[in-house]
Amino acid sequence: MSLDKVKHIVLVLSGKGGVGKSSITTQLALSLSLAGHSVGILDIDLTGPSIPRLFGIESSKVTQAPGGWLPVPVHAANPAAGIGSLSCMSLGFLLRERGDAVVWRGPKKTAMVRQFLSDVLWGELDYLLIDTPPGTSDEHISLAEELLKNALPGQVAGAVVVTTPQAVATADVKKELNFCTKTGINVIGVVENMSGFVCPNCSECTNIFNSGGGEVMAEEFSVKFLGKVPIDPQFVMLVETGRRPKYPPGTQVNGHEMGTNGNVDYSTDVKDPGLLVEKYKICSLAPVFEAITKQVMAAVEAKAQGT
């Protein structure tokens, strides 16, 4: 496979749509890059590929090379700043228009997943994150079969499972945990997304969707709970417009004091200069994901040494 030079493969899964898998994948990738690791993202959510939009590279096109496809670069490595490279591959790059619908039957989806796994020339990567569609569909089955059949021993580190606090979400995500058990995929841990809302106008972080459902579910299945991630409109603004986050004095998110990041004029739609990874460092979710990423890296290394 084209994954021979990839050290660790991490799947991002959920049994339910709309819980923010792609957002979690994006921030996990940014956090790993900020830790100095080279990272790739493979987006196999074929009917709703959102990774290109989240990184602001929807207009990019995939380059054909001898033996396969070259992934689209997000940013190059910057050793002096301790930032690793980041690239991604998605069906979104192969569509003629952003709004084009992908109306495929199961066998064609399966063939596309296999082609992504065999034909994308990642080169040397520390981490490959695979953003999956919701549920336990054809894509999941073909992905699990292909990885378990062709991956090197210990290469598939496991899965990060994403849920939201509500009971309706955790009920569906339990099916994903059972899927991992049946297919032999190691569960690295559970992330509870949308656990609180960071108000852009005051310093409050409010639990609008309740909180704690993901932690209870992780305990029930005896898997690690990685942390809670609130909704931050400043992160949405960052990925949608490129504007740098700014917080009122006194803002605290998961115990981290954000304070204020200087005077930023939000009266215009002008994109602030700089790379997304650099601007993300001042987002309230960056320290949250730094803690989550450290746990993921520790679990991945522990599994690699135990292989």
TrEMBL record:
Binding site for [4Fe-4S] cluster: C199, C202
Name under which the protein is recorded: Probable cytosolic Fe-S cluster assembling factor nbp-35
Source organism of this protein record: Phialocephala subalpina
InterPro entries, sorted: Mrp-like_CS, Mrp/NBP35_ATP-bd, NUBP2/Cfd1_eukaryotes, P-loop_NTPase, YlxH/NBP35
Major location (coarse): cytoplasm
Keywords: 4Fe-4S, ATP-binding, Cytoplasm, Iron, Iron-sulfur, Metal-binding, Nucleotide-binding
Family to which the UniProt record says this protein belongs: Belongs to the Mrp/NBP35 ATP-binding proteins family. NUBP2/CFD1 subfamily.
GO cellular component: cytosol; cytosolic [4Fe-4S] assembly scaffold complex
Binding site for ATP: G15, K16, G17, G18, V19, G20, K21, S22
Location in the cell: Cytoplasm
CDD domains documented for this protein: Mrp_NBP35 (cd02037)
An annotated Gene Ontology molecular function: metal ion binding
